[in-house]
């Protein structure tokens, strides 16, 4: 009689182990590719928004008004979908002149966090002129205005966190060379675009 052919238990365990390793590698590569694609989308969105912001400045000799109910309390600008918002783009870029057809662009890294507040899901937009004027005693905003220009745009980046648990941690720039999913926000500023990220620290250390 011929001996029964088949796999031994050890062979099956080895095969399952190899499959598990290959699956883990594949998932890791998939998540990395997904993160890189989202970062590229953020940068493309921000370039588009930056072009609209600069065109607005040329036409009006000032930055487009941000939505910020603590500063302005104007429901026409500072309430989006029934929520009071701070530090995001406003309808100034779409009404009455359409510099952007829709200024309320969702941050790709926040798309799945539907429970978050509206202004946490949109790109951050800060009119640094306004912040500097309204906070002249701050060691942060006037310096930020001098270094970065009249405005800046921000995304939470792959870590999905705007503040990272230390003083002025929102200024930490995302650096993909530290790993695709690393701490930091993706910033685009008027003066220097994405290349000004190195100016976020150590100069901007004062209190907001």
What does this structure look like?
With 208 residues, the chain is of the alpha+beta class. The protein has one domain. 36% of the residues lie in helices and 12% in strands. It has helices at 9-60, 75-78, 118-121, 128-134, 141-148; strands spanning 66-68, 79-80, 83-84, 86-89, 124-127, 151-155, 186-189. A three-stranded antiparallel sheet has the order 5-6-7. A two-stranded antiparallel ribbon has the order 1-4. It has a two-stranded antiparallel ribbon with strand order 2-3. It is elongated. The mean pLDDT is 85.
Structural features:
three-stranded antiparallel sheet; two-stranded antiparallel ribbon
Count of the domains: 1
User: Counting H and I runs of at least 4 residues, what is the number of helices?
Assistant: 5
Tally of DSSP β-strands: 7
What strand order characterises the main sheet? 5-6-7
What is the element string, with H for helices and E for strands? HEHEEEHEHHEE
Percentage of residues in DSSP E strands: 5-15%
Uncertain residue segments: none
Instruction: Classify the secondary structure makeup into a structural class.
Output: alpha+beta
Q: Which range best describes the helical content: under 10%, 10-25%, 25-40%, 40-55%, 55-70% or over 70%?
A: 25-40%
Kindly, what is the distance between the CA atoms of the first and last residues, rounded to a whole number of angstroms?
Answer: 85 Å
Tell me, what's the shape? elongated
**Gyration radius from CA atoms, angstroms:** 23 Å
The average pLDDT value, as a whole number, equals 85
Biggest β-sheet strands, sense, barrel: 3 strands, antiparallel
């Amino acid at each position: 009689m011929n001996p029964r052919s088949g796999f031994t238990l050890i062979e099956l365990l080895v095969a399952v182990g190899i499959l598990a390793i290959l699956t883990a590698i594949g998932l890791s590569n998939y998540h990395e590719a997904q993160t890189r694609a989202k970062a590229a989308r953020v940068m493309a969105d921000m370039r588009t928004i930056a072009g609209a912001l600069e065109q607005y400045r040329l036409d009006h000799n000032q930055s487009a008004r941000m939505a910020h109910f603590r500063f302005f309390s104007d429901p026409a600008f500072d309430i989006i979908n029934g929520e009071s918002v701070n530090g995001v783009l406003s309808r100034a870029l779409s009404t009455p002149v359409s510099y952007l057809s829709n200024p309320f662009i969702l941050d790709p890294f926040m798309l799945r966090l539907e429970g978050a507040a509206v202004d946490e899901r949109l790109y951050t937009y800060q009119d640094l002129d306004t912040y500097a004027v309204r906070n002249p005693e701050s060691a942060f905003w006037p310096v930020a205005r001098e270094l970065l220009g009249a405005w800046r745009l921000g995304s939470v980046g792959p870590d999905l966190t705007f503040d990272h648990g230390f003083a002025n941690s929102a200024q930490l720039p995302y650096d993909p060379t530290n790993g695709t999913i690393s701490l930091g926000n993706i910033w685009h500023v008027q003066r220097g675009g994405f290349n000004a990220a190195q100016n976020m620290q150590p100069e901007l250390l004062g209190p907001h």
